Amino acid sequence: AQRVTQPEKLLSVFKGAPVELKCNYSYSGSPELFWYVQYSRQRLQLLLRHISRESIKGFTADLNKGETSFHLKKPFAQEEDSAMYYCALVPGRDDKIIFGKGTRLHILP
Amino acid sequence: DAGVTQSPTHLIKTRGQHVTLRCSPISGHKSVSWYQQVLGQGPQFIFQYYEKEERGRGNFPDRFSARQFPNYSSELNVNALLLGDSALYLCASSFGTGELFFGEGSRLTVL
């Protein structure tokens, strides 16, 4: 079964501390993985995708096929990082995206 | 470009009624997909349309239907509403590559 698991509903981190949002997936083929973010009172938007290998707003995510994980990391949290983060899997060449339940990241001052 | 626009933003219906939600994609995007987001959950895929053809359907009952018009706008219809249909309905448009651009959603409450 195709599934995305985000084990933490809420993650509270102090400003300046490292952040790691966990994501594990279940998929038999070669997945395409994304992180989407929703800031307060804004619409859901793409943060990054694994194939681009970019760092966006200081965030990076590495696909680990052995551990079937795609954890989102940032070395130094900023207050503006507070948001809802969704890990997402695209199993095919279309827009049927499977989202995890999301993790709310709360950056403490 | 205003981005993906959805209407209405909020609506209240009673059980058994029917609802139509509308979505206008970003100019140039030919793919429109619909997602249901229940409180505390991630968005769940309902439908995708590309070039007016249904490309994908999620695990939703036949009460849910959709279509895409020649101008690439789309409608989501839900018949015989149930209390459990209360949710935020998100529309997203794209070039069909998996990078979605979401609207702000239509919040449906079924009483």
Short description:
Chain A is built from no helices and eleven strands. Chain A is mostly beta strands. Chain B contains no helices and eleven strands.
Can you lay out the helices and strands and say which pair or pack?
The complex is a heterodimer of chains A (109) and B (111).
Chain A: E1 3-5, E2 10-14, E3 19-21, E4 24-26, E5 32-38, E6 45-49, E7 60-61, E8 72-74, E9 83-90, E10 98-99, E11 103-108
Parallel strand pairs in A: 2-11
Antiparallel strand pairs in A: 1-4, 3-8, 5-6, 5-9, 7-8, 9-10, 9-11
Chain B: E1 5-7, E2 10-13, E3 19-24, E4 31-37, E5 44-50, E6 53-57, E7 64-68, E8 74-78, E9 87-94, E10 101-102, E11 106-110
Parallel strand pairs in B: 2-11
Antiparallel strand pairs in B: 1-3, 3-8, 4-5, 4-9, 5-6, 7-8, 9-10, 9-11
Keywords:
heterodimer; A: 109 residues; mainly beta; six-stranded mixed β-sheet; three-stranded antiparallel β-sheet; 11 strands; 0% helix; B: 111 residues; seven-stranded mixed β-sheet; four-stranded antiparallel β-sheet; 51% strand
